[in-house]
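May I ask for an example protein's residues together with how it folds?

___
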Amino acid sequence: MNWSALDWGILGPAFIAGLLVLLTHVPLGAQVLDRGIVFIDLAIAQIAGLGVIAADAVGLPEGGVAVQIAAVVSALLGALLLTWTERKAPRQQEALIGVVFILAACAGILMLSGNPHGGEHLKDLLVGQILWVNTTQLIWLAGVSAIILLAMVLGWVTKLGRFGFYAVFALAVTASVQLVGVYLVFSSLIIPALATRSSKGGRQLTGAYAIGVVGYAIGLALSALLDLPSGAVIVWTLACCALVWAVKTKSLVNEEMGKSTP
């Protein structure tokens, strides 16, 4: 193990990026499970990524404002589409989300087929580059996260109905997918929420945030020590932390039930 690799100058910004992603994805994850549309984040993230690929294809500066606008517009258009499909075919919504995801993914592959760096761009989209986030990206993510949380707390999302949820979801995913990648976006959204599914209210949120924070911290440290891809390692550590939480919670519930039994 390379202990000198535990450099806060590199791991610190990456950890902050993870915390900002969790800030919005944990409460949204609970709503996603309640609605039964687990794969929506994959679809929206892929659509946002398609906007980034399209912006790159027409020669827009990488990481510039124009690229961000392209990603947001693409994600919002995807949100509009999924709002419409939920209204027209609610029973088939999960399947339609899957179809949208695979179409967006294949469109991205086709657009990158003539790019000599296409494989690298595709890998960055899926796994992300969390170790290389900069201050500007963190400020952008923090600003978007604050707006999203404010909208949720003040009830603006609820007032806008279906589209409000999809639009907020699109903004949250767009802001995070370019930093951490599609895989970590999905994991941050679903894994903590799934592990704390049996809990309610504040306990559920506290548990989900705890799983996310510990998972990101351990994942980043292990990826640095073992010189492994950070995104992939964090996905596994999130899953392990969620499993430990679920087992521990179940044990506590069984213990309490045993004590209450005469």
